[in-house]
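Support reply, case 0932

Customer input (verbatim):
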Amino acid sequence: MTDDAVDPQAESVRKLARAMLRTALLPGLLAVAVAAAIATVAVGSAGLSGALIGGVVAFASSLLTIVLMRWSAGLPAQVVMAVAMGGYLLKLLALLVVLVMLRDIESVHTMSLGLTMLATIFVWAGAEVVAFKRTPIPTLIV
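Our regenerated output:
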C-alpha cells in the first residue's frame, strides 16, 4: 500500500469515532448536569462535588474510547482488539482508583460520585450505540 492509498477500514473507524463523539457529547454533558443537580438537592455541596468529580472522570473515560479508536484505526485488527481491551482495563482501573482515593474525603459524597460515573458512562455508551446504528459504514456480521 502506498502512502497515498486510503485505508477503507481506518476511514470507517474514524468516521464512526466522529459520529460517536458528536452523538454522545450533549447527552453526556446533560447526564453530568442532571446528576449534579440531583446530588446537590439530595446531599448538598458534598453531593455536588462528588457528582462533578464523577462526571469529569466518566467523561474523560468515555473520551478515551474515542481517542483510542482514532489512534488505532489504521492498525491491524488484532492490534486494534488489544488496544480496545487495554483501554477498557485502563478505564476500569482509573475509575476504581478514583473511587478508592476519594472515599474518605468528607467534602466528596462517594455515592454521588459513583452514581454520576455510572449514569454518564451508560448515557455515553447508549449514545455510541445510536451513532453506530445511524452511521453508514460497511459492517460484516458473520
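We compared this against your earlier run and they match. Two observations from our side: The longest helix spans residues 8-43. Residues 73 and 131 are 17 Å apart (CA to CA). Please reopen the case if you see a mismatch on your end.
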